[in-house]
User: Fold Adenine phosphoribosyltransferase from Phytohabitans flavus.
Amino acid sequence: MPDLAKRLIETFRWIDLGPESTHLVSDMSGWWRDPEIIAALGPALAGLFRPARPTVVVSPEVTGYLLGPLAAAALGVGFAAGHKEGADRQIAEPVTWARTAPDYRGRTPGLGIRSRLLGPTDRVLVVDDWVTTGAQVRALYEVIQTLGATPVGCAAVVADCDREVTAELGIRSLLTSDDLAPD
Ligand SMILES: O=P(O)(O)OC[C@H]1O[C@H](OP(=O)(O)OP(=O)(O)O)[C@H](O)[C@@H]1O
Assistant:
């Protein structure tokens, strides 16, 4: 196993919120606190798709805003935000939206990208921390295609989805959820 994968596993935690809680909560704060992980994550995610020659990275709000720019910098391309509807601020220009199917928490948020940021010459890499149902990635692909651009795939730190979704959305990851299974 590569050193980065080992370090991601060592610094990840499941948090038990107590007897009232029905599930463990993932805690990735150790990743952002570790200088070696911060330095290695962008190049590692970029390396999953370098041959696809992405021209831009897109990531969903909010954890994607940490990871996407790291991967974009490693690829030498720019970044465009995937906004979630309902944020407490206005976007004062046209945004192209798509609604997600129910995600891993049963939510169906709209995801949107500022329309002027992508065009037909763009090959777009979606980057995220964790993909479960793939609903948010799929909605971003819909927006990307509506804007005339081409999604080349999704680079994730953790993939937790079934084989069909992985193949359909072209998901590649540094870890699978089995690597982070609670004890
Ligand atoms: O595969 P899916 O079922 O679509 O779920 C995966 C998405 O959910 C998580 O983000 P979340 O919406 O919890 O936001 P966060 O980044 O603010 O934690 C994760 O960061 C992905 O974006």
Residues 2-17+24-180 form a domain with the Rossmann fold fold (CATH 3.40.50.2020).
